[in-house]
Model the fold of this input.
Amino acid sequence: MSHWKIKQAPVIQNEITVPGDKSISHRAVILAGLSNGTCVINGFLPSEDCMCTANAMRALGVKIEQPQPTTLIVHGKRRVLTAPEAPIDCGNSGTTMRLLAGVLAAQPFQSTLTGDPSLSRRPMKRVMDPLSQMGATFSAQGEKGTPPLVINGGKLQPIHYNLPMASAQVKSAILLAGMFTKGKTSVTEPAQSRNHTERMMSYFLVHPKVDELTVSINGEQTPESRDFTVPGDISSAAFWLAAAAAQPGSHLIVRDVGLNETRTGVLGVLIRMGAQVREVVEEVEDGEVRGSVEIKGARLKGTMICGKEIPNVIDEIPILAVAGALSHGKTIIADAKELRVKETDRIAAIAKNLKLMGAHVTEREDGLEIEGGFPLRGAKLPSYGDHRIAMAFAIAGLFAEGETVIEDVECVATSYPNFHETLESILKTRREPEIPVIGALPAEESEA
Done:
């Protein structure tokens, strides 16, 4: 299917689950591949991006079986990988390329990381700089420090690196490289980014030390092989949560979803906008918090999204911008210049598509100013080859007059292969199912 046709939806009354967390799936495959034995990963996200990471580890000599799409059996190589026979294709996945750069920086061979045209435009200097300081040699064959990347790895030295901007991918690359050094490697961030790598390293008994915004790891450690279960992806859930939040009378429950505190900023934003939200932690398994989120829709109001909150909601900005257009009052998104160098220029893409739907939006260098409350109209909208743009504007189409067409939706397979099936199930829902409420949710109160 190359495009989606979407019409206004009935009131959302659903209980759903979402696929495995994308960020966690990447990291689970890498750490399992570096471990000292066999690991079974359940709940793995078999998206194009995560399969790029799995296939990259295979190319580096790691045996990985996949008896079911969401189950991997990974036979660890004790941190000793094999030189690949050909360049490693990272597809559209910046996570694959940046995290693997940290691992390959410590390997005693040359390797090359390539990607599709979109990934080949994305900046890699931010990860090359610290890894070069540790002793690896990089050659970026694209313009302005962009892929393909040729890496000559070898013996690394520990460093203490101050990140110029919060980045979970760069932090993770440095920590992965730090496992191979003699001595302590530390990374300090200006603001908290997602902490899956630190949590998963602890689960695999590598024992990083966290001191506020600094994470340290002692080198020459091999992850202990352990089975791992990936929770549902809160970033995937965010599309449905925002849709329910913006629709008075709606009621949605998302089950078995990750509730890591560095990923749930989207819930706080929706609460500020007026949605009734309750999250219930049901267990802490494999180092990750998981549970359920219940949301009831309301008449939303605009809000400010900026500063230290941005790293926590960076992937959710497209759908939060749509929520802003569906709200009353002004929503301002600032300090989000990082969005300019994602799969596409997301700031420009959001602004253009919102304007095509009749929204009042002003594009800023580091964000957007959205005047909500104006009715949306159906339109033919490009995805710009960006999965989050495609999904965010599919949700916008649920609220628009007439028909909305999202073009070139193949990109959604990079993170949420069955998104359209869930969308179709919501469009077909015409009556309220019996949904058990999680606890008591007061009519005029919100919790998170």
About this structure: Confidence is low (pLDDT under 50) at residues 430-448.
